[in-house]
Structures are given as C-alpha cells and as structure tokens.
Amino acid sequence: xTAPTPQTGDTPSGFAYAVAAYLLWGFLPLxxxxxxxxPAAEIIAxxxxxxxxxAGAVLLALGRTRDLVTALRTPRMVVMAAVTASLISVxxxxxxxxxxxxxxxxxxxxxxxxxxxxxxxxxxxxxxxLTPTQWTAVGLAAxxxxxxxxxxxxxxxxxLVLMTTFGIYGFLRKTLPIGPxxxxxxxxxxxxxPALGYMIWLGPSGHFLTGSWRDTALLLGAGAVTAIxxxxxxxxxKRLRLSTIGILQYIAPTMIFLIAVFVFEExxxxxxxxxxxxxxxxxxxxxxxxxxxxxxxxx
Length: 299
Known about the structure:
Shape: globular
Number of strands: 0
Radius of gyration: 19 Å
Low-confidence stretches: 1-7
Largest sheet: none
Number of domains: 1
Mean pLDDT: 88
Distance between the termini: 33 Å
Helix content: over 70%
Structural class: mainly alpha
C-alpha cells in the first residue's frame, strides 16, 4: 500500500478542486456561527459521525476500499491515524469555539501563520535549510504574535493552537502511506465510537432530535461541510505543485478575516492593525521564496 505519486505540474482539475475547497473553508464561519448556541463538543461529534457515510460513499465509488481494510489490519497505521485524528479533532473543536465566541480573527491569524509554522517545523525536525528570506518571514510572524501577546497581556492561544495542531497534523499526515480519501475515512472511523458514545450520553439534552428542525438540519449538514472540502483539497493537492498550493492556501484565512471584520464586526484594534500587516508581509516573503524555488526547479 503506497501513497499516490506527487503531482509535478498544475492541472485545471487540480486548481478547481483546491479553489473550491478553500472557498468552502472560507465560508465555513458563517455556517458555524449559525450553530453558536450549540456546544462545540456536540458539533464536533456530528461533524465526525456524518462524515463517515459521505467519505465511505466516495471511497466505494472510487473502488479504493481495499487500502482502508489493509490499514485497519495494520496496528502501526491505526496508531498513526489515531494521533492525526486526535490532532484534527482538537483543531475542529477550538475553531468551532472561536467562531461561537467572537474569536474569528484569532482563527484567521492561526491559519495565516500555519504555513510559516510548517516551514519552521521542517527546519527543526527535518533539518531543512531555510533561506534568509524564509527566516525573515518566520521572524515577522513571531514578532506579530509577540505584539498581540504584549498588547493583550495574554498569549493568543486560539491562533497558536489552530496553528500547531493543523501544522503537526499536516506534517504527520504525510507519513501515512495511504491515499488522502482513505486516510480521512480512517480518521473519522477511529473518532466515531467516542463521538457516538458522547451523543448517547447527551441523550435528550442534545440539540439533534430534541432541538428545532433548524438545529437538526445544521448538525446533519456538519458532516458535509467537514468531509467535502477536505476531500476536494486532498484531490486538488495531488494535481498541483507545492508552490501553487502554498499560494492558494491564503484564500481561506483571508475570507475568514473579511467575514470576522465586516460580517461579525469583531473589533480590530491597534495591536491587530500592527500584527496582521506583519503577517501579510511575512506571507509575501514566503510566497516570493516559493515562486523562486519553483522557477529554479523548472530551470
């Protein structure tokens, strides 16, 4: 069982898949805000449970269930998937809580900084050599976090948790020798028993069948808004170069930022007026470095 061969060039279908995924992630705060009155743990349980049939149907349609069966029979694979599943569930939980508690700007910050965190992770763990431009970008991101910490008197934990959990998740996910769709289904299958147990424990106090029809519909749809963009992204990433994905990934946090400011009307403040431009400058440097590397590789 091997992972798919990385794509060496961009394809129109890959671009369409990736852009669709990032647009769906960008609009996700609006969906989550509609469920702000529902506890985050209950929302996560439904995101897990209703993702299983969707991901399973996709895998059946693709005829790739054999890889999943092999993975379930491999203890090492199950343990690795359990770790990545735990990381993504924490990421989902903090994200849902942040949207419900008017911290969408912190969520945007976390996903903006994530690619720079991944670069730093590669330098520390894989001993990858960073260019001076990349080090400058990482330094600007660290300065932005420092500005927010000093101004608020507290570490911006929402942004940092989202950054670290998604960054480490992406790093470990690459080590799973299984296709992206199979890997996602494996993760939600491992999360399904505790999610189902939590729903049984909630019983009548939950919002699914005892709440309004609107709550029931939103919780049912939580699986679709979780599984569809993840699988679109996974298939897009196979058909695009790393540099292209690196640029497109700013679509979602930019949309989250705009929704937080202009729709949710979260206060921007002086500290954020300094920190976000620092992050944008860091991302501009990082993108320039990606493009230079891509041109050098083609040459």
